[in-house]
Specification:
The protein is built from three helices and twelve strands; from the N terminus they run E-E-E-E-E-E-E-H-E-E-E-E-E-H-H. It folds into two domains: 35 residues; 135 residues, Nucleoside Triphosphate Pyrophosphohydrolase. By secondary structure, the protein is of the alpha+beta class. A four-stranded mixed β-sheet has the order 7-4-10-9. This is NUDIX hydrolase.
Length: 181
């Protein structure tokens, strides 16, 4: 057994939904004892840091039911099973903002909550936005409003907790670091 590895002894599926699957794994710990792990399986997600020609960042504001409030976020969405993240990133950019791009660069990938979920989030950036003549329709149950902010305004939104999710905080920090170069 690898250092710290937890070997799965038994898996019980609790819920299998449209977006996530919840399971409880009984695991054997490195010391030989057993424990239970509640695990959320997720197909992964993409997010885009879109920057306009006048150097504004395009965000979307939307209501987040688990938080019972609206957040301002970079455009993002879940991957369909087996979908190429780059293709999904363009799709989400188009659906959520009405922009498309011919130049999307990979920034990073990270696990959003590795303590209980396997969601891997891929982040891209573009400063080559093109407004679509006919924007792609978004999901029927998704209501968003476009918010364009300078980096300084975005930093203020972070302080005010209007931007308050990991991927968007990462995006603002990433752009701040690029600005310092």
């Amino acid at each position: 057994m690898k250092k710290f590895e937890e070997k799965t002894v038994k898996t019980e599926e609790i819920f299998n939904g449209k977006i996530v699957q919840l399971q409880i794994d009984e695991v054997q710990l490195p010391n030989g004892k057993t424990s239970k792990r509640e695990i959320i399986k997720h197909p992964g997600a993409v997010a885009v840091i879109p920057i306009t020609k006048d150097n504004k960042i395009v965000f979307v504001e939307q209501y987040r039911k688990p938080l019972e409030k609206s957040l301002v976020e970079i455009p993002a969405g879940k991957l369909e099973r087996g979908e190429n993240p780059l293709v999904a990133a363009v799709r989400e950019l188009e659906e959520e903002t009405g922009y498309t791009t011919n130049s999307l660069s990979f920034v990073t990938s990270f696990y959003s909550s590795p303590g209980f979920a396997n969601e891997l989030l891929h982040i891209y950036i573009t400063d080559d936005l093109v407004k679509l003549d006919e924007p792609q329709p978004g999901d029927d149950d998704e209501f968003v409003e476009i918010v364009e902010l300078t980096l300084d305004e975005a930093k203020q939104y972070v302080e005010e907790e209007r931007i308050h999710d990991a991927k968007t905080n990462y995006a603002v920090l990433y752009l701040h670091a690029l600005e310092g170069r």
